[in-house]
Protein backbone atom coordinates (compact mmCIF):
# COMPACT_ATOMS: atom_id res chain seq x y z
CA UNK A 1 0.00 0.00 0.00
CA UNK A 2 1.36 3.42 -0.92
CA UNK A 3 1.56 5.91 1.91
CA UNK A 4 1.79 9.65 1.70
CA UNK A 5 4.35 11.71 3.51
CA UNK A 6 3.08 14.69 5.54
CA UNK A 7 3.89 18.02 3.98
CA UNK A 8 6.57 20.24 5.44
CA UNK A 9 5.41 22.85 7.93
CA UNK A 10 3.68 25.79 6.30
CA UNK A 11 5.36 29.18 6.16
CA UNK A 12 4.49 31.42 9.05
CA UNK A 13 4.53 35.07 9.94
CA UNK A 14 7.25 35.68 12.54
CA UNK A 15 6.75 37.95 15.57
CA UNK A 16 7.39 41.67 15.22
CA UNK A 17 11.07 42.58 14.95
CA UNK A 18 11.97 39.09 13.82
CA UNK A 19 12.98 38.70 10.16
CA UNK A 20 13.63 35.44 8.32
CA UNK A 21 15.76 35.50 5.17
CA UNK A 22 16.08 32.23 3.26
CA UNK A 23 19.63 31.38 2.24
CA UNK A 24 18.98 28.09 0.44
CA UNK A 25 16.34 26.72 -1.87
CA UNK A 26 15.58 23.68 0.29
CA UNK A 27 17.27 24.39 3.60
CA UNK A 28 18.59 27.28 5.64
CA UNK A 29 17.60 30.77 6.76
CA UNK A 30 19.21 33.70 8.54
CA UNK A 31 17.35 35.25 11.47
CA UNK A 32 17.64 39.04 11.82
CA UNK A 33 16.40 41.50 14.39
CA UNK A 34 17.14 39.50 17.55
CA UNK A 35 19.77 39.85 20.26
CA UNK A 36 20.17 36.37 21.73
CA UNK A 37 21.87 37.78 24.82
CA UNK A 38 18.55 39.33 25.87
CA UNK A 39 15.59 37.55 27.45
CA UNK A 40 13.47 36.39 24.53
CA UNK A 41 9.69 36.62 24.66
CA UNK A 42 7.99 33.18 24.57
CA UNK A 43 6.32 34.17 21.30
CA UNK A 44 9.75 34.81 19.79
CA UNK A 45 11.03 31.44 21.02
CA UNK A 46 7.98 29.77 19.50
CA UNK A 47 8.63 31.63 16.25
CA UNK A 48 12.23 30.42 16.18
CA UNK A 49 10.97 26.88 16.78
CA UNK A 50 8.55 27.17 13.88
CA UNK A 51 11.31 28.53 11.64
CA UNK A 52 13.56 25.64 12.66
CA UNK A 53 10.91 23.11 11.60
CA UNK A 54 10.50 24.84 8.25
CA UNK A 55 14.10 25.70 7.37
CA UNK A 56 15.99 23.00 9.34
CA UNK A 57 19.05 25.25 9.92
CA UNK A 58 19.02 28.82 11.26
CA UNK A 59 21.93 31.28 11.27
CA UNK A 60 22.18 34.12 13.80
CA UNK A 61 24.95 36.50 12.72
CA UNK A 62 27.20 38.52 15.01
CA UNK A 63 25.72 37.45 18.35
CA UNK A 64 29.06 37.16 20.22
CA UNK A 65 27.61 35.11 23.07
CA UNK A 66 29.75 33.57 25.79
CA UNK A 67 29.28 30.00 27.00
CA UNK A 68 26.59 31.09 29.48
CA UNK A 69 24.69 32.86 26.72
CA UNK A 70 24.86 29.85 24.42
CA UNK A 71 23.69 27.54 27.20
CA UNK A 72 20.83 29.88 28.05
CA UNK A 73 19.71 30.12 24.41
CA UNK A 74 19.91 26.37 23.75
CA UNK A 75 17.95 25.61 26.92
CA UNK A 76 14.98 27.56 25.52
CA UNK A 77 14.31 24.53 23.29
CA UNK A 78 14.53 21.78 25.91
CA UNK A 79 16.76 20.09 28.42
CA UNK A 80 20.44 19.99 27.51
CA UNK A 81 22.68 16.98 27.08
CA UNK A 82 26.18 16.83 28.46
CA UNK A 83 28.86 17.66 25.91
CA UNK A 84 29.31 14.13 24.53
CA UNK A 85 28.94 10.50 25.64
CA UNK A 86 32.72 9.90 25.58
CA UNK A 87 34.63 13.11 24.74
CA UNK A 88 35.51 15.66 27.47
CA UNK A 89 33.74 19.00 27.67
CA UNK A 90 35.16 22.49 28.01
CA UNK A 91 36.68 22.67 31.48
CA UNK A 92 34.03 23.63 34.02
CA UNK A 93 31.27 23.51 31.37
CA UNK A 94 29.89 19.96 31.26
CA UNK A 95 27.36 20.78 28.51
CA UNK A 96 29.83 22.52 26.13
CA UNK A 97 31.85 20.53 23.59
CA UNK A 98 34.92 22.20 22.05
CA UNK A 99 35.12 21.60 18.29
CA UNK A 100 38.79 22.42 17.76
CA UNK A 101 39.88 21.83 14.18
CA UNK A 102 43.21 23.55 14.76
CA UNK A 103 44.43 20.49 16.67
CA UNK A 104 43.90 18.17 13.71
CA UNK A 105 40.50 16.95 14.97
CA UNK A 106 38.29 17.33 11.91
CA UNK A 107 34.64 16.22 11.52
CA UNK A 108 35.03 15.97 7.77
CA UNK A 109 32.45 13.27 7.17
CA UNK A 110 28.70 13.52 6.77
CA UNK A 111 26.92 12.74 10.02
CA UNK A 112 24.06 13.54 12.35
CA UNK A 113 25.24 14.24 15.89
CA UNK A 114 25.53 11.26 18.27
CA UNK A 115 23.27 8.84 16.40
CA UNK A 116 25.16 5.93 17.93
CA UNK A 117 23.05 6.29 21.11
CA UNK A 118 19.34 5.50 21.39
CA UNK A 119 18.29 9.12 22.04
CA UNK A 120 20.33 11.45 19.80
CA UNK A 121 20.01 15.22 20.29
CA UNK A 122 16.93 17.09 19.15
CA UNK A 123 18.93 20.12 18.04
CA UNK A 124 22.51 21.36 18.01
CA UNK A 125 23.87 24.86 18.46
CA UNK A 126 27.31 25.78 17.11
CA UNK A 127 29.01 29.05 18.05
CA UNK A 128 32.07 30.36 16.22
CA UNK A 129 34.94 31.61 18.39
CA UNK A 130 37.90 31.37 15.98
CA UNK A 131 37.52 30.93 12.23
CA UNK A 132 40.16 30.69 9.49
CA UNK A 133 40.45 33.46 6.88
CA UNK A 134 39.38 30.97 4.23
CA UNK A 135 37.60 27.60 4.28
CA UNK A 136 36.29 26.14 7.51
CA UNK A 137 32.64 26.34 6.43
CA UNK A 138 29.91 23.96 7.60
CA UNK A 139 27.62 22.19 5.14
CA UNK A 140 24.15 21.14 6.33
CA UNK A 141 21.86 18.80 4.38
CA UNK A 142 18.07 18.42 4.38
CA UNK A 143 17.34 14.71 4.97
CA UNK A 144 13.61 15.21 4.34
CA UNK A 145 14.25 16.61 0.86
CA UNK A 146 16.57 13.65 0.25
CA UNK A 147 13.79 11.22 1.13
CA UNK A 148 11.37 13.01 -1.21
CA UNK A 149 13.97 12.76 -4.01
CA UNK A 150 14.04 8.96 -3.83
CA UNK A 151 12.20 7.14 -6.62
CA UNK A 152 9.01 5.70 -5.18
CA UNK A 153 10.16 2.03 -5.23
CA UNK A 154 13.38 2.97 -3.43
CA UNK A 155 11.43 5.13 -0.96
CA UNK A 156 9.15 2.20 -0.10
CA UNK A 157 12.19 -0.07 0.29
CA UNK A 158 13.93 2.44 2.56
CA UNK A 159 10.81 2.67 4.74
CA UNK A 160 11.47 -0.93 5.85
CA UNK A 161 15.22 -0.68 6.48
CA UNK A 162 17.05 -0.39 9.79
CA UNK A 163 20.66 0.66 10.24
CA UNK A 164 23.10 -0.02 13.05
CA UNK A 165 24.95 3.15 14.09
CA UNK A 166 28.22 2.96 16.03
CA UNK A 167 30.98 5.23 17.29
CA UNK A 168 33.56 2.45 16.73
CA UNK A 169 34.41 1.95 13.09
CA UNK A 170 37.40 2.27 10.73
CA UNK A 171 38.35 5.94 10.87
CA UNK A 172 41.06 7.56 8.78
CA UNK A 173 44.55 7.54 10.27
CA UNK A 174 44.92 10.33 12.88
CA UNK A 175 47.04 13.27 11.74
CA UNK A 176 48.93 13.70 15.00
CA UNK A 177 49.12 12.60 18.64
CA UNK A 178 46.34 14.99 19.70
CA UNK A 179 43.98 13.57 17.08
CA UNK A 180 44.96 10.03 18.07
CA UNK A 181 44.11 10.78 21.72
CA UNK A 182 40.76 12.24 20.65
CA UNK A 183 40.08 9.05 18.69
CA UNK A 184 40.92 6.94 21.75
CA UNK A 185 38.51 8.97 23.87
CA UNK A 186 35.79 8.85 21.22
CA UNK A 187 35.72 5.04 21.19
CA UNK A 188 36.54 4.54 24.89
CA UNK A 189 32.97 3.35 25.44
CA UNK A 190 31.44 1.45 22.55
CA UNK A 191 27.88 2.05 21.37
CA UNK A 192 25.82 0.27 18.72
CA UNK A 193 22.21 1.31 18.19
CA UNK A 194 19.65 0.29 15.57
CA UNK A 195 17.65 3.18 14.10
CA UNK A 196 15.08 3.24 11.30
CA UNK A 197 16.63 4.36 8.02
CA UNK A 198 13.54 6.51 7.55
CA UNK A 199 12.72 8.47 10.69
CA UNK A 200 9.39 10.19 11.27
CA UNK A 201 9.93 13.66 12.68
CA UNK A 202 8.11 13.86 16.05
CA UNK A 203 6.83 17.41 15.47
CA UNK A 204 6.37 17.95 11.73
CA UNK A 205 5.56 14.36 10.75
CA UNK A 206 8.04 14.60 7.87
CA UNK A 207 10.03 11.55 6.88
CA UNK A 208 13.78 11.88 6.51
CA UNK A 209 16.74 9.60 5.79
CA UNK A 210 18.30 8.99 9.20
CA UNK A 211 21.72 7.66 8.24
CA UNK A 212 25.11 9.41 7.92
CA UNK A 213 28.63 8.42 8.90
CA UNK A 214 27.77 6.54 12.08
CA UNK A 215 25.40 4.23 10.15
CA UNK A 216 27.74 1.35 9.36
CA UNK A 217 25.49 -1.60 8.51
CA UNK A 218 21.92 -2.51 7.64
CA UNK A 219 19.99 -5.04 9.70
CA UNK A 220 19.61 -8.26 7.71
CA UNK A 221 22.32 -7.42 5.16
CA UNK A 222 25.97 -8.34 4.90
CA UNK A 223 28.83 -5.81 4.93
CA UNK A 224 29.07 -5.46 1.15
CA UNK A 225 25.33 -5.02 0.57
CA UNK A 226 25.11 -2.62 3.52
CA UNK A 227 27.86 -0.40 2.15
CA UNK A 228 26.34 -0.31 -1.32
CA UNK A 229 22.80 0.46 -0.13
CA UNK A 230 23.90 3.07 2.40
CA UNK A 231 26.10 4.72 -0.21
CA UNK A 232 23.15 4.88 -2.62
CA UNK A 233 20.82 6.41 -0.05
CA UNK A 234 23.48 8.81 1.23
CA UNK A 235 24.03 10.13 -2.31
CA UNK A 236 20.52 11.62 -2.19
CA UNK A 237 21.24 13.41 1.10
CA UNK A 238 24.35 15.11 -0.27
CA UNK A 239 22.91 16.30 -3.57
CA UNK A 240 23.94 19.96 -3.99
CA UNK A 241 20.33 21.16 -4.12
CA UNK A 242 19.72 19.68 -0.65
CA UNK A 243 22.62 21.57 0.98
CA UNK A 244 23.33 24.94 2.51
CA UNK A 245 26.89 26.17 3.13
CA UNK A 246 27.49 28.26 6.25
CA UNK A 247 30.49 30.62 6.00
CA UNK A 248 31.42 31.50 9.57
CA UNK A 249 32.33 34.81 11.15
CA UNK A 250 33.42 35.04 14.80
CA UNK A 251 30.34 35.45 16.99
CA UNK A 252 27.93 33.67 14.64
CA UNK A 253 25.61 31.00 16.03
CA UNK A 254 23.85 28.25 14.09
CA UNK A 255 20.89 26.22 15.34
CA UNK A 256 19.98 23.11 13.35
CA UNK A 257 17.42 20.31 13.72
CA UNK A 258 19.47 17.19 14.40
CA UNK A 259 16.47 14.94 13.75
CA UNK A 260 16.26 15.66 10.03
CA UNK A 261 19.64 17.01 8.89
CA UNK A 262 23.23 15.92 8.39
CA UNK A 263 26.30 18.15 8.45
CA UNK A 264 29.92 18.16 7.31
CA UNK A 265 32.91 20.41 7.99
CA UNK A 266 35.28 20.32 4.99
CA UNK A 267 38.96 19.94 5.87
CA UNK A 268 40.07 22.80 3.62
CA UNK A 269 41.90 25.25 5.88
CA UNK A 270 45.32 23.63 6.34
CA UNK A 271 46.88 24.10 9.77
CA UNK A 272 44.92 27.26 10.56
CA UNK A 273 43.00 27.50 13.85
CA UNK A 274 39.23 26.91 13.93
CA UNK A 275 37.28 26.71 17.19
CA UNK A 276 33.55 26.30 17.68
CA UNK A 277 31.59 25.45 20.81
CA UNK A 278 28.69 23.01 20.56
CA UNK A 279 25.70 22.72 22.90
CA UNK A 280 22.99 20.17 22.17
CA UNK A 281 19.35 19.86 23.20
CA UNK A 282 18.20 16.43 24.37
CA UNK A 283 16.05 14.50 21.92
CA UNK A 284 13.62 11.62 21.96
CA UNK A 285 13.86 8.04 20.72
CA UNK A 286 13.53 7.89 16.90
CA UNK A 287 10.64 5.94 15.43
CA UNK A 288 10.15 4.47 11.98
CA UNK A 289 7.19 4.73 9.65
CA UNK A 290 5.43 1.87 11.45
CA UNK A 291 5.98 3.45 14.86
CA UNK A 292 8.73 1.04 15.97
CA UNK A 293 11.32 2.80 18.18
CA UNK A 294 15.10 2.52 18.00
CA UNK A 295 16.83 -0.02 20.24
CA UNK A 296 20.25 -0.58 21.79
CA UNK A 297 22.38 -3.33 20.23
CA UNK A 298 25.52 -2.86 22.32
CA UNK A 299 26.39 -0.56 25.20
CA UNK A 300 24.00 1.24 27.53
CA UNK A 301 21.27 3.84 27.13
CA UNK A 302 23.74 6.74 27.68
CA UNK A 303 21.84 8.08 30.69
CA UNK A 304 25.00 9.97 31.72
CA UNK A 305 24.78 11.88 28.43
CA UNK A 306 21.11 12.68 27.86
CA UNK A 307 18.42 13.37 30.48
CA UNK A 308 15.83 11.73 28.22
CA UNK A 309 17.45 8.33 28.79
CA UNK A 310 17.58 8.95 32.53
Give an account of the 3D structure.
There is one protein chain. The chain has 310 residues and is an alpha+beta fold. The protein has one domain (19-298): Double-stranded beta-helix. The N and C termini lie far apart (38 Å). It has six helices and 16 strands. It has a seven-stranded mixed β-sheet, covered by helices on one side. A four-stranded antiparallel β-sheet has the order 11-7-8-16. Strands 12-6-14 form a three-stranded antiparallel β-sheet. Strand 9 and strand 10 (207-209) form a beta hairpin. It has helices spanning 42-55, 67-74, 143-149, 152-158, 177-186, 223-237; strands at 19-22, 29-32, 57-60, 97-100, 123-130, 138-142, 162-166, 192-196, 198-200, 207-209, 215-218, 243-246, 253-257, 261-264, 275-281, 295-298.
> How does CATH name the architecture?
4-Layer Sandwich
**Cross-sheet strand order for the largest sheet:** 1-2-3-13-5-15-4
User: Which structural class matches the secondary elements?
Assistant: alpha+beta
| Proportion in helices | 10-25%
Question: Would you tell me which CATH topology applies?
Answer: Double-stranded beta-helix
Number of separate helices: 6
The CATH class is identified as Alpha Beta
Average pLDDT level: 91
Beta fraction: 15-25%
Amino acid sequence: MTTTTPAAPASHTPPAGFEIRRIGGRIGAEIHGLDLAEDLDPAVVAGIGDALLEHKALVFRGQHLDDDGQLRFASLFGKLTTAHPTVPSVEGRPEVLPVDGGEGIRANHWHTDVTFVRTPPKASTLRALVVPPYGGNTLIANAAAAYQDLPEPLREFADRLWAVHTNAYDYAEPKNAKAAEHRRQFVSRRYRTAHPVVRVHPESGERGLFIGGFAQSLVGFGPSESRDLLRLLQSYVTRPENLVRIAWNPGDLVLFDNRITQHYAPDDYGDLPRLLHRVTVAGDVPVGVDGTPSYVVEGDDAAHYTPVAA
